[in-house]
Design a protein that fits this description.
Distance between the termini of chain B: 19 Å
Radius of gyration of chain B: 23 Å
Number of strands of chain B: 0
Oligomer: heterodimer
Helix content of chain A: over 70%
Helix content of chain B: 55-70%
Number of helices of chain A: 14
Strand order of the largest sheet of chain A: 1-2
Shape of chain B: globular
Shape of chain A: globular
Radius of gyration of chain A: 24 Å
Structural class of chain A: mainly alpha
Largest sheet of chain A: 2 strands, antiparallel
Order of helices and strands of chain B: HHHHHHHHHHHHHH
Largest sheet of chain B: none
Strand content of chain B: under 5%
Chain lengths: ~325, ~300
């Protein structure tokens, strides 16, 4: 277990290092550069000033050297300054990271609460009317564009009905204190969490169903049934326990797509998370912030992958690595 | 094709093609989806025709006729600039479908080549390619796509004639999506190649002196085509979703070229005054994506009997 963890962590660090170079190079290809931004802000700058500033910020150096300098600073905790927020990029990232984790955790928990019973019910009688209905729901959830769903939710619940706020983290100026503040925040969470949940629940449910059907076909289920194990115990105790193990891996592996979904919901509902931060920094030419945001997004999915591997190894000692299963 | 030997009672000597067709027809939703998609493609391709029939111009601004309700002149009404929604939806469909098909085919080609190489040659190449595939799969897709479609193409050495092309944004989005979209096909093809490589007919071909390329493209690839088709069909839906969200965010396909995604960009600002505008483009995306997913599901049942539950 420790060995697997060690290999996976070191592999992930290599991927992260490669990605940091790729992302650094890509950010350099975005329109404009930091000095252009300064020129646009200050018409008094002469071309000598520009050359001097470029030299000062090291922008006249070749890519590898600039990357090396950035990496050296980054390893020491210095990710540069955010242009939009006028703060160190790390200080901007951390609160956004917290908000994203709140959103994603709430959505995953809710998705699981929906996907597990639905998947199990669908698997009990494959091809029944109930299975068919659940399957339709899954296909709809997978196929609906999340930003459109968010748009419709805002129009329905915020514009037409006026029940829920259209976006933001809390009521500006009127959030109240203590419990009422918490209630206000929860109210702002309902739509983003709901949309993100619908975005992910279809895939989860289909996996639980497929996994349950496979387990229910196995011999030990027939044996248990022959021995007189009741239907509830059979499903929950015997079948679900076995079906849920690969499912944990799937959930951990879905972090990447969940983060993509979070980016959309955050942008739609002005939820101040990492996804919205990345989008705003790319549009606003805030290079340092975009860089750290993308790196953390990569890190999050890599952590999800490591968790998936560990869960797999823990769940099934016969398999030493995930890749071992595929060949 | 061992499955072809098994005779199903009541159907007598059935050719594999016929059996696939029968299986496909059993999947009612897939059949309905195929019909829907064919109609959609027809309407999208006929956009210039319907433009002429209605006597309209997709990009003509008519400020006096803004946000008009559906009528004979404008079957779906008009948008905030008085442009006809039906014609713009048709043109948007052209763009969304063309981009998705191109990106899906492009991804499938890359994935097939990677999978064939990894599966056939094995060893270090296989290990390297599969590690690389795992790495690509683990990346956060949407944030990277946002950066990749935002990059300034004039900063990389591309002939300037290309940059001036009106369709450069289309090519950019197709290439960018294909860069990430090939992984599923690569894994499937690799697995299939590994299985086929040791089958008797391949060994026989090797014994008869067939070279590597002939084995790969004449004997292995044709037998690995089913999973490629299924995975590619299923990927089209996802690609439409990705393209629409990028265009919606103002990063993919830019106005005046209409795409279903960028038609919704303005709908967000106008949702207080004209909520109806948000409905049609989104509904088109939704229906098209779900149709491709049903179609993929049906093709899976038809082409890959082992996956039948």
């Amino acid at each position: 277990m420790i060995r697997i963890l060690g290999t996976r962590v070191s592999e992930s660090l290599i991927v992260l290092l490669i990605m940091s170079f790729v992302i650094y190079g890509l950010i350099g290809l975005m329109p404009g550069d930091p000095i252009d931004e300064m020129i646009a802000a200050n018409p008094l700058l002469t071309s000598e000033d520009v050359a001097r500033l470029k030299a000062l910020h090291g922008l006249d150096k070749p890519l590898m050297e600039r990357y090396g300098n950035w990496l050296w600073a980054a390893v020491h905790g210095d990710f540069g300054f955010s242009r939009i927020h006028a703060k160190p990029a790390v200080d901007v990232l951390l609160p956004h990271l917290g908000n994203t984790l709140i959103l994603m955790t709430a959505a995953v928990v809710l998705s699981l609460l929906i996907a597990l019973p639905l998947g199990v019910y669908a698997a009990i009688k494959p091809n029944s009317a109930l299975d068919y209905t659940i399957n339709m729901f899954c296909f709809a959830g997978i196929s609906v564009p999340p930003f459109w769903l968010a748009l419709l939710a805002i129009i329905l619940f915020a514009v037409l009905l006026g029940w829920l706020p259209a976006g933001g983290m809390e009521t500006v100026g009127g959030a109240g204190t203590g419990w009422s503040s918490l209630a206000d925040r929860l109210k702002h969470m309902i739509l983003p969490v709901g949309v993100l949940t619908l975005h992910s629940v279809g895939g989860y449910t289909r996996f639980v169903r497929a996994s349950m059907i496979q387990v229910l076909r196995q011999d030990f289920i027939r044996t248990a049934r022959a021995k007189g194990v009741g239907p509830t115990r059979l499903l929950m105790g015997h079948a679900l326990r076995n079906a849920i193990l690969p499912f944990i891996t799937v959930v951990a592996l879905s972090f990447g797509s969940l983060f993509s979904g979070a980016l959309i919901t955050e942008t739609m509902f002005s939820w101040l998370g990492v996804g919205k931060m990345i989008y705003d920094s790319v549009l606003g030419n805030d290079f340092n912030l975009a860089l750290i945001g993308l790196l953390f997004a990569t890190l999050m999915t890599l952590v999800g992958n490591i968790m998936a591997d560990v869960a797999y190894a823990w769940a099934d000692p016969r398999i030493s690595t995930r890749r071992g299963l595929e060949t | 094709m061992t499955a072809a030997i098994t005779l199903s009672a009541g159907h007598g000597h059935e050719s594999p093609g016929r059996r696939m067709w029968r299986r496909f027809l059993m999947h009612k939703l897939a059949v309905a989806s195929a019909v829907f998609l064919a109609l959609l493609a027809l309407i999208a391709l006929a956009a210039p025709l319907s433009e002429a029939l209605l006597g309209l111009d997709a990009n003509r601004v008519d400020l006096l006729g803004r946000l008009a309700p559906p009528s004979w002149a404008h079957p779906f009404g008009t948008d905030e600039l008085g442009r006809d929604l039906f014609v713009r939806l048709s043109y948007g469909g052209q763009v969304s479908l063309a981009v998705a098909l191109a990106a899906a085919v492009f991804s499938a080609v890359i994935g097939t080549l990677v999978g064939l190489a990894a599966g056939y040659f094995g060893g270090r190449l296989d290990a390297f390619l599969m590690r690389f595939t795992d790495g690509v799969i683990s990346l956060p897709l949407l944030p990277l796509l946002i950066v990749l479609v935002a990059i300034d193409l004039s900063k990389i050495s591309i002939p300037s004639a290309w940059l001036e092309s009106q369709h450069i944004a289309l090519y950019q989005i197709i290439i960018v999506i294909a860069l990430f979209g090939w992984t599923t096909v690569a894994r499937l093809v690799r697995a299939e190649t590994l299985a086929l490589k040791n089958r008797e007919f391949v060994r026989a071909a090797v014994a008869l002196g067939a070279g590597g390329p002939r084995i790969i493209f004449r004997h292995i690839l044709p037998n690995a085509i089913s999973p490629i088709i299924v995975a590619t069909t299923l990927s089209i839906g996802n690609i439409i979703l990705l393209e629409s969200v990028l265009s919606f965010l103002g990063l993919g396909i830019q106005p005046p070229i209409a795409s279903w995604g960028n038609m919704l960009t303005n709908a967000q600002e106008l949702m207080w005054s004209a909520p109806a505008l948000a409905v049609w483009p989104g509904l088109m995306i939704f229906l098209t994506v779900i149709a491709f997913n049903f179609l993929g599901d049906g093709l899976q049942d038809a082409l890959d009997p082992r996956a039948l539950s």
